[in-house]
Amino acid sequence: MKVLVEIEAAIPALRRYARALMRDRDRADDLVQDCLERAVASRHLWRGDGPVQAWLFRILINRYRDLQRRSPLPGHLVAIEDLVSEPAQCGGQEGALALREVHEAIARLPVDQREALLIVALEGRSFEEAASLLDIPKGTLMSRLARARATLRVLTGRGTGAEVVPGPSRGRR
């Protein structure tokens, strides 16, 4: 029963991450639902060697990647206020434009860079946790984060472009 309670407690974080990945509220909710169904059906397979939430994130990420392989079409943009559970603070028109610019720039990142950036920046995972969840070496995670941040600086007009590696990431999966 303890596993089910921990699964339920992880739902808000799963929804937040899925919405940021999918950029479509309905598709993200479907992804979370699928993740939860798989987790509940196979909870007897959970080894108990780590947090349940980490196990759930692995299921969600793997399911997301399966969906991307089948249908790599980009989702719709989701309003940033739908991604956070705390009330948004009004930053004025300039702040709203900057936020939209960053959100659009994140949507333009290659999938592997976006996954890495969101799991660290949005979910606040440590580099070790994020690398484990994404099933990549820590060095690959760090490389993807560096490329994602450099690309974001250029796309938002805050960098030179010299540090951006064009095209998709070259790291292992």
Automatic annotation (TrEMBL):
Coiled coil: none annotated. One of its GO terms (molecular function) is sigma factor activity. CDD domains: Sigma70_r4. Residues 7-60 form the PhyR sigma2 domain. SUPFAM superfamilies: Sigma2 domain of RNA polymerase sigma factors (SSF88946), Sigma3 and sigma4 domains of RNA polymerase sigma factors (SSF88659). InterPro entries: PhyR_sigma2, RNA_pol_sigma-70-like, RNA_pol_sigma-70_dom, RNA_pol_sigma70_r4_t2, RNA_pol_sigma_r2, RNA_pol_sigma_r3/r4-like, WH-like_DNA-bd_sf. The keyword ATP-binding does not apply. It comes from the Bacteria. The keyword Transcription applies. GO terms for biological process: DNA-templated transcription initiation. Residues 100-152 form the RNA polymerase sigma factor 70 region 4 type domain. Keywords: Sigma factor, Transcription, Transcription regulation. Belongs to the sigma-70 factor family. ECF subfamily. This is RNA polymerase sigma-70 factor, ECF subfamily. It comes from Salipiger marinus.
